[in-house]
Amino acid sequence: MTDGTFAVEPIGRVESSLVDLTEAPRQGDEGTPESWLVFVPEVAEGLRGLRPGMDVLVLTWLDRARRDVLVVHPRGDTARPATGVFGTRSPSRPNPIGLHRVTIVAIEGTRVRVRDLEALDGTPIVDVKPVLGAISER
């Protein structure tokens, strides 16, 4: 039996013009610039099958988020009732895993250009998964 600890290693980093948390859009569909997912060479084979136009889920480690927050006002709006972070998309949470639905624009080797990613420049990438369509398309 293990002690409950585990390690997650980044498989790449985000390259984006978004560098300031206070100026970044809260969600990817709120006016984000195109950005790059830059993968480490060791995972290059894992990119097989990705193609421009494909929607994927990118999981990131929100390395600049607070980990001691359990209750927030959604979107920072104090007029809204305080809500537990598990009922929100707040980046501040015990395990700050980011979940981003993006569209692939281009692929150049281990660099994947995407749109609708609100992650800051340098954010570690943890995983990428395809958005699943109907059962008949899987």
TrEMBL record:
The keyword Repeat does not apply. Residues 8-138 form the TsaA-like domain. It comes from the Bacteria. Keywords: S-adenosyl-L-methionine. PANTHER family: TRNA (ADENINE(37)-N6)-METHYLTRANSFERASE. Belongs to the tRNA methyltransferase O family. This is tRNA (N6-threonylcarbamoyladenosine(37)-N6)-methyltransferase TrmO. It comes from Actinoallomurus iriomotensis.
